[in-house]
Amino acid sequence: MGSFLGDHAITSQGSSFLQWIQATGLTCWNELLAFGIPTFLSGGSGTLRSSVIDLFLSTSPLLNPSMQIRSDLSLGSDHKMVNLTFTPYVSPPPPPTNHPRLLWNLSGLAQPDTLKIYIDTASGSLDNLTEQFSAFLSSSSPPPVDSLCSAFAQAIYDALDTAVGRRTPRTMQKYWFWSVDLQDAMDLRERSYQHWRHSSGLQKAICWMRHQDACHAVRLSVQRR
């Protein structure tokens, strides 16, 4: 988008996109917070290419915005990681304290004795609920649908609690995917990227090829996992 973002690269696509941004009244936060800082860096073919490609746009102002472009990291991509932080005008809802779903050991219902306990328990509760339904059918006033639905669901829950019991949700294993070999490959990729950034001349091309080899090694390690 040229001088609008402090970018040296000018393309017809970028010019058209800039016209659309200005016509729609959008705010481009790269212009205000990271003017002239490229988000795309490539050393392929022995030539450093850079441009401002990865953009943050909004239709309204942001409170206390700040932007950071991590050109010091490789992350296996020519597109650099861009962080935009701001203070939301509305506080986010608190995280739920309980698991969002109720879980039971439903496989236990495959046992005839357990299934009979469930049916007998549910039937006793539903018989009482059926009487309430019958009373409302002969009444001219509208039935309390929400209350009846809640009572029906609670009857099923109680029967399941009695017959099979509730199941504790599994704790997600967050680090099962990661391994020492994968971490070593990631570290080598980032070190090779730093060597390329700080090299010059013919050595820069050599460092770029080494960095590409390190990126390939990371992809292979991920596929093996």
Question: What features would you describe in this structure?
Answer:
The chain is built from six helices and six strands, in the order αβαβββββαααα. It has helices spanning 12-24, 29-33, 112-137, 145-163, 180-197, 202-224, and strands at residues 27-28, 40-42, 49-51, 57-58, 63-70, 81-87. Helix 5 (180-197) packs antiparallel against helix 6 (202-224).
Give the name of the CATH superfamily of the largest domain: Endonuclease/exonuclease/phosphatase
In spatial order, strands of the major sheet run 1-4
Mind describing the biggest β-sheet?
Answer: 2 strands, antiparallel
Number of domains: 3
Here the CATH topology of the largest domain equals Deoxyribonuclease I, Chain A
Q: Shape from CA axes? A: elongated
Helix proportion range: 40-55%
Query: What class do helices, strands and sheet pairing give?
Result: mainly alpha
Q: Order of SSEs, N→C?
A: HEHEEEEEHHHH
Average pLDDT metric: 87
User: What is the CA–CA distance across the termini?
Assistant: 40 Å
CATH architecture of the largest domain: 4-Layer Sandwich
Number of strands: 6
Radius of gyration, CA atoms, in whole angstroms? 30 Å
CATH C-level category of the largest domain: Alpha Beta
